[in-house]
Amino acid sequence: MQNSKTTEAVAAGIRKRVFEHAMRNNGGYLSQACSAAEQLAFLYNEALTLGDPTLPAIPKPFGGVPSATNPEYHTGAGYNGPFEPQFDRLFIAPAHYALVAYATLIEVGRMDAKGLEMFNQDGSSVEMIGAEHSPGMEVHNGTLGIGFSTGAGLAFGRKRRGETGDVCVFMSDGEVQEGQTWEAVQAAAHHQIDNLWALMDVNDQQCDGAMDSVMEVGDIAAKFRNFGAVCVEIDAHDLDALREAKQTPHEGKPLIILARSSPTQGMEFLRRRFPRLHYVRFKSQEERAEMNISIAAELGIDPVDLTDGGH
Amino acid sequence: MVEMVSRPYASAFESYATANPDVLCLSADLTSSCEIDGFRDRHPDQFISLGMAEQNMMSFAGGLGLAGYRPFLHSFGVFLYRRPYDQLIASVAYPRRKVRLMGFLPGITTPGGMTHQSIEDVAVMRSIPNMTILETGDATEVESICEAADSIDGPVYCRVLRGSIPRLFDTPIKVGQMRELALGEDILVITSGIATEEALRARSALEKSGVSIRHLHINTIKPFGEEALLDHIGSVSKGVVVLENHVTEGGIGSLVAEIMADNGVGKKLVRLGLRDTFAHGGSRAYLMGHYGLDAAALVAGIEKLLGSKTGITEEQLTSTRIDAVHSAVKAEAL
Ligand SMILES: Cc1ncc(C[n+]2csc(CCOP(=O)(O)OP(=O)(O)O)c2C)c(N)n1
Ligand SMILES: [Mg+2]
Fold first, then answer.
1. Residue A311 carries which DSSP code?
2. Distance, in angstroms, between A109 CA and closest chain B CA?
3. From 3.30.470.10, 3.40.309.10, 3.40.50.920, 1.10.357.10, which CATH number describes the B179-318 domain?
4. What number of other Cβ atoms are within 10 A of residue B218's Cβ?
């Protein structure tokens, strides 16, 4: 697909869409848009080699779960293009980032804006916690910590088949608390899986708040290197740094990019909520109105029309 | 109108734990989602944050058990058995540690989809030797779940409701004792958890249509005393219908089937629940309708057993409570 927007513009569009959605729906995974907008924009707009979408721009309703009696079943991976040997594959490992991922699909022209209106609606495939039938998803990752293992297996298999496309896993830092993440890196290093790379949103946040207050994870870059990966740390909001990090040679090893992010980037008003940013909900209508005006100003857009008729 | 109680677990756990210093509160990064954020803030000495690492939490709890503590583990039900299953068996179930597994958002009460919905937990837990299983169906049962769980000499898994919960009962859980909610003579309806409220919604319509219902509410799924159940089955003429927020394989429907078969009870049984399928994300009311777990599904199950229509319409079923997914009573992060 032809890039029609700059990656900066895509990132700005992601924040705007997620903000508007959160305003209309009494909250949401807003902080993840702050921390990850550049990362997802970079993946879809530059870093990944993907073919044109194979699924309709307006998502189909939920089509049932996999079963022998549901032959029409398919995942949402078609929004990332066809499974061809030369194309890359992407997993969104922290499935609660789905809202941000859907906004990205819209910004890069892979999904219609109507897709976001279906978010978390009964009977829709555009689920709150990205399911494998949700746009842009290929596997279920709502149980955190399994994404990198699946990515490693897919990468191993693709390499064995001689496919040239890479496997990329977008990860969250909470995932490093799960033992499986380390087992995955260990296996990827042992088997020299170097058609595999991860971009991790290191926002130092998890459900309970700041990670240091919940369970310290220490120097994860050093840990990843000790487990056999090539690891670079960069500023998540610096696109040139992302570009450069992606070029890091990692022959015989998986590459893990730690994108150190701010959970309030672009919406500093949310600082008031620190360190409870995982799911932002308004405490009152006054707060909602105040947030609407302040964050819209930060984003350089008009406040969202919250009157009943407004949309 | 049914009284709605907001976050009963929060205060119930706090008063129970503070009175029992050997009770420790363990959390795996879902602290406010499991309503123990206030406890963490007020009683940091009794609260252990273990991060998003459930396998470690399970064996860690086994170790605390060795040291004479009675850890209460808090997470969504799914994360207390799917990932840490091996740890659950080796560190907790086999050695009979007094570990209390507080599993929130049972079955389809979460919009989080397959990865968040504990739809086969009862089947899994029933098959584990030494395990006790309790399930809450109203605010009073949630208020009494800590004491009930902690009375068990061994590990216990609890399906706990959270948020805004109706008060249906006025007496606490008595472990091993089912509640007799109606004593009719045609059909025995057996429910647990949120399915009980559904059965109550259908009750008056069923009465009006002339079907006499005997209704049992189960809060202790394992161990399960057969005697009382057999008496009730013996008291109805037409058969038994079970409705549960779980797959129909291995849950309460299966339990009832086993007891009936073991005792040669030649009556019909209709098992209602998720029919050999995973679910997906959506509101609770929608999922209950979609997967046939609601009052209307119960009426249909009863009609199947009777072999005739009751004539009951959806409008006649007492109105459902609609909890908005994003309502204020809901804790953060699902
Ligand atoms: C195995 C597992 N345990 C617990 C959860 C519940 N959960 C969902 S997101 C999350 C926090 C994880 O941290 P991170 O992904 O870094 O969150 P964020 O930065 O978005 O706050 C938790 C504990 C889960 N989805 N999977
Ligand atoms: Mg994080």
1. -
2. 25
3. 3.40.50.920
4. 25
Task: Please give the distance, rounded to the nearest whole angstrom, from the Cα atom of residue B40 to the centre of ligand 1.
Answer: 19
CATH topology of domain A31-61+73-265: Rossmann fold (3.40.50)
Ligand 1, residue A263: give the atom nearest the CA.
19
Q: Which residues of B touch A (CB under 8 A)?
A: 27, 29-33, 49-53, 55-56, 78-79, 82-83, 111-116, 277-283, 286, 290, 325-326, 328, 332-334
The confidence score (pLDDT) of residue B320 equals: 57
Output b/e per residue, A169-191; b: 16+ Cβ within 10 A: bbbbbbbbbbebbbebbebbbeb
Hey, which CATH number is domain B8-166, 3.40.50.970, 3.40.50.2300, 3.40.50.620, 3.90.940.10?
3.40.50.970
Ligand 1, CB within 6 Å, residue ranges = A 32, 94, 96, 142-145, 172-174, 203, 205-207, 278; B 29-30, 52, 54, 79, 83
State the smallest CA–CA distance between residue A276 and chain B in angstroms: 9
pLDDT tens across the length of chain A (311 residues) = 556 899 999 999 999 999 999 999 989 999 999 999 999 999 999 999 999 999 999 999 999 999 999 999 999 999 999 999 999 999 999 999 999 999 999 999 999 999 999 999 999 999 999 999 999 999 999 999 999 999 999 999 999 999 999 999 999 999 999 999 999 999 999 999 999 999 999 999 999 999 999 999 999 999 999 999 999 999 999 999 999 999 999 999 999 999 999 999 999 999 999 999 999 988 899 999 999 999 999 999 999 998 865 44
Residue B25: strand pairing partners: B47, B72
- Asked whether the beta carbons of residue A208 and residue B31 sit closer than 8 angstroms, the reply is yes
Distance CA B3, CA A190 (A): 59
Taking the CA of residue A31 as reference, the ligand 1 atom at the shortest distance is 20
In angstroms, rounded to a whole number, what is the distance separating the alpha carbons of residues A104 and A98?
A: 10
Instruction: State whether residue A306 sits within 8 Å of chain B by CB.
Output: no
Q: Judge: A131–B113 Cβ closer than 8 Å, yes or no.
A: yes
pLDDT tens, residue by residue, B89-144: 999 999 999 999 999 999 999 999 999 999 999 999 999 999 999 999 999 999 99
Residue of B nearest to A179 (CA): B53
- Distance of CA A229 to CAs A181, A232, A244, B122, Å? 12, 10, 17, 40
Q: Can you say whether the dihedral through the CA atoms of A35, A260, A213, B161 is positive or negative?
A: positive
